[in-house]
Amino acid sequence: MVLAVLFSAMTEPTFVPLGERYDPGIPPQQAADQFHEILRLRRSIRAFSDRPVSREAVEAIVRCATSAPSGANKQPWRFVAVSDAQTKSAIRAAAEKEERELYAHRASEEWLRDLAPLGTDDVKEYLDVAPWLIVVFRMTATDDGGKVYYSDESVGLATGMFLAAAQMAGLATLTHTPSPMKFLAELLGRPKHERPYMLIPLGYPAEDCTVPLHALARKPLNEVLLFDPTTNS
Ligand code: IYR
To answer: Which residue of 66, 69, 85, 180 has the fewest C-beta atoms within 10 A of its own C-beta?
Structure first.
């Protein structure tokens, strides 16, 4: 009886052949190197041009992001794309209010010291200037009230793929997390089961865009990659 109830809601899996598969036609190391030649040029920028970016470009980039894996394939993300000047300006005002608090009171001495080489402050002009603000929301439940799994990891993966896709598209991004970000849900009229995850300005860099030297350094591979660390060879 109990089993019958348990199984009644189960869907039998259906399997299909793997089918079409991407083959770069060159050895994996070479293909990854080519990808790296593009990815290594990605920078978080804070000076955007107001040069327009088409809605179709946003759609194509978000389509890439949604190819990410997710817990039980629940795809617990929502991308809200804002181009309206008034809405961007409202987001800027609310974000700057939080950032002023952060820089003046909330951030620890150590945090401020870690941020110092980036030269960031509470003025976020790019929130007005970038043609698009993409607000990524993490869903805490499906739209019909069902459970989601590993939503943090899933949305993180989709966001990473968004950044990579924007880079492939020749556009620049910033991963901006004004904290707390609740105001984004309110300003954008999102329901309770959508939590702001990241605010990503998307566009072209300003002509005179500079980036902090500090952010260019990448840890050497031997620091981030260990091969078989428990074997002797
Ligand atoms: N959100 C603030 C502070 C900030 C925090 C981290 I961690 C950064 O890597 C960069 C900035 C701001 O955007 O200025």
So the answer is: 85
Which atom in ligand 1 lies closest to the alpha carbon of residue 121? 14
Q: Peptide bond preceding 180: is omega within 30 degrees of 0, i.e. cis?
A: yes
Strands in the chain per DSSP E: 77-82, 132-139, 172-173, 194-203
Q: Report the C-alpha gap between 164 and 63 in whole angstroms.
A: 12
Where the chain has pLDDT below 50, the residues are: 1
Is the CB–ligand 1 distance for residue 178 below 6 Å?
A: yes
Q: Give the containing element (helix H, strand E) for 111.
A: helix 109-115
pLDDT attached to residue 131 = 99
**Does residue 176 have its Cβ closer than 6 Å to ligand 1?**
yes
Give residue 232's pLDDT: 79
Q: Say if strands 172-173 and 132-139 run parallel, antiparallel, or are unpaired.
A: unpaired
196 Cβ inside 6 Å of ligand 1: no
Tokens of 182: 């609740």
The pLDDT, as a whole number, for residue 41 is 98
pLDDT at 179: 87
Our answer on whether the CB atom of 60 is closer than 6 Å to any ligand 1 atom is no
Looking at residue 188, what DSSP letter applies? T
- Give me the domains of the chain, ranges plus CATH numbers: 51-207 (3.40.109.10)
pLDDT given for residue 192 in this prediction:
98
- Ligand 1: distance of its center to the CA of 57 in Å? 27
Atom number in ligand 1 closest to CA 179: 1
Distance CA 98, CA 38 (A): 34
Neighbour tally for 161: CB within 10 Å: 18
Instruction: Give the model's pLDDT for residue 233.
Output: 65
At residue 8, the pLDDT reads 61
